[in-house]
Predict the 3D structure of the following.
Amino acid sequence: GESVGLHLPTLSVQEGDNSIINCAYSNSASDYFIWYKQESGKGPQFIIDIRSNMDKRQGQRVTVLLNKTVKHLSLQIAATQPGDSAVYFCAENNGSEWNKLVFGAGTILRVKS
Amino acid sequence: DVKVTQSSRYLVKRTGEKVFLECVQDMDHENMFWYRQDPGLGLRLIYFSYDVKMKEKGDIPEGYSVSREKKERFSLILESASTNQTSMYLCASSLPQGTPMGYTFGSGTRLTVV
């Protein structure tokens, strides 16, 4: 899940297992959500997005689930690979300020071989 | 390959120096953003721009200014660097509202102020 404070939550998974990374968002007016992956020494990279009129969207090995009732977003990674090790951020737009994204603190995913 | 390029990966500056962080994008994007990234705090928006010569304050603009004289270039300026501005700085660009969103990020500039 998302953190407050200085330490990011860490998810450790075995290679080949499925990973689920969670995010609680704050603004009920947000209608667009994105997951980013940030590898060490690199900027965040787009993984998948979802609009608020959907509750599920699938990409290649990744699925995003949106639960607007409890303002919760999750990223599922199937058959996790060592290359998936990174920090994952969720982001929401700001409702009325459609072009501005608000980012969560991030979750570290560590894949054990 | 489309890119957002930040001119420096690592910078070390002294307290009180004026610091310029440069960002250039080659995607003809209207929107450009500067974030700082600190452990446990995520990405926090410093300034953004929706057009040339246009700028707006983000959530933490104090101690910073920006310049956008050309569409492809967005500069972040630390008027008088302080140690609490030691951070990773990320530049991003995006298309305007109504088009597929999401940002393209640069690789970041890690600034240390001593």
